[in-house]
Amino acid sequence: MSRPDPAPSAAKLPRQPISRKRVDTVLSRSVAWFGVVFGLQALLLVLPQYSLGQPVWSALAVGAMYGSLLLSLLCSTVKRFVVGAHRAVAVVYVLALLTWPFFLADPSQPQEGDHWLYLLTTVATASAAIGLSVRGALVYLFVVPFIYGIIRATPWGGDGPWELGLFNAVYAVILGGAVLVIITMTRAASTSVDDAQGMALDRYSHAVRQHATEVERVHVDAIVHDSVLTTFLSAARAESAEEKQLAATMAGNAMRHLEEAALATPDDGSTVRFRQVADRIVTAARELSAPFSIRVRSLDTRILPAAQAEALYSAAVQAMVNSLQHGGGHEVKRWLRVSGVQGGAIEIEVGDAGVGFDLDQVPGERLGVRRSIIERVANAGGRAEVRSAPGAGTVITLRWPVVMAPLDGAAELDAASPTIEGTR
After folding, report:
1. In 3D, which of 144, 174, 151, 149 has the Cα closest to residue 163?
2. 3-class DSSP state for residue 219?
3. Beta strand pairing status for 383-388 and 419-422?
4. What is the DSSP letter of 372?
5. Backbone φ, ψ for residue 168 (5° rounding)
6. 3-state DSSP call for residue 401?
7. Mean pLDDT score, 346-368
8. Reported pTM
């Protein structure tokens, strides 16, 4: 019996549209590089002014400031802990600014001209726009530059003219305000685009499901009429041994036809977003009788074929239902994890800390795990793994698509087949 063609790889899927997540990535990286460039420029003042501060303070302030700038660049590049890294830049700058007047090496000889921290004021306000809420970034924008202006006009800050301190503060507010406006408006626009795309795809997904349901109904009606119903009629009319033998043969053919139909995965080219699949699975989990701990992460606007989406959704729901039926009572810890992984794939994990079971002891006629989960996902071009042992709970992991490594022919066939792990 031939298997359907595997699902298309993520590389062949259409290019993903712009999204809030992508915009945030571009903004955070831009601000991080902006901070590094201004930090290099500030070195022209850091070097001659380094000795004006107490050695410990100078080492800590310069190290922490430049370390936070590099940290924000690293986190923005790898797209991990981005908000926290930019928030660290904003906090470190404020601490360095507030402590600057108290740690002069010689209070009677403060530095002349602008302090090196002034060149990083706009960097700090831009980082605050990334790391803080809009209201928090707005407060930061007005308060921090004026703190510098006030300190600059004091004897410890160089005893500069108050007009100069005010000018520096206003200049920093204008420049930082422009950055804040650009970031805020770009985020708002991308959020509106996301909402519009989500609404359109919700409607499209609903229409796709209705169409798939109708196609499946017509397909099932044809199977029932052409195979099952004909077999029943022949069996009812069979009187002689030859007629009974023919009815038995037809029954066997009908069963084989049903199995082949169950393995076929219809695909009309329709697609849905990963987020759509995750939302449906999460909704189903919240409607079950026992609570599941739910976590959804790293899902952007990547898409997958509608048929594969239905297979993943059905398999995930079946896994949760199995946990409720066989994993134990409501006191058992249960969880659902849906996440995007490298290579454009989606991974769904349904687990519990319940009674577990020995996979080798599952009777052959029990098709819940084998047919409803493993074969369903495999037919969709994915992979299902079941890990369970008596007393150790059960974890079912669904992945789509299967990411194949360069292997020989036998290994490739093994990698494409469903996997079950458990005790022996």
Report:
1. 149
2. helix
3. parallel
4. I
5. -60, -40
6. coil
7. 76
8. 0.54
